[in-house]
Amino acid sequence: xxxxxxxxxxxxxxxxxxxxxxxxxxxxxxxxxxxxxxxxxxxxxxxxxxxxxxxxxxxxxxxxxxxxxxxxxxxxxxxxxxxxxxxxxxxxxxxxxxxxxxxxxxxxxxxxxxxxxx
Length: 118
Known about the structure:
alpha/beta
């Protein structure tokens, strides 16, 4: 069974960023439906997405909700840097700060995860 960590780095400010987050969510959904071990992580400017996608009126909310159980968390440092810590806390998502305030991608690789970025 594949082990995959999907990392969203895309910003919320462009149509291109929306396309990237949709592709990340679709990939997570595909792995989930195949019963693979998939983790979704929001990092960098991608920390802006959970607060947006959690809103029921957002056009991608249903897709986000379909994979929300696969969200491993959000980068602690980046959530703070982008002013998103409160929004992430409101979404009840874990903050990941295993390596200097950031998620440990090395630990994911050591555990056998393939890392895909969007």
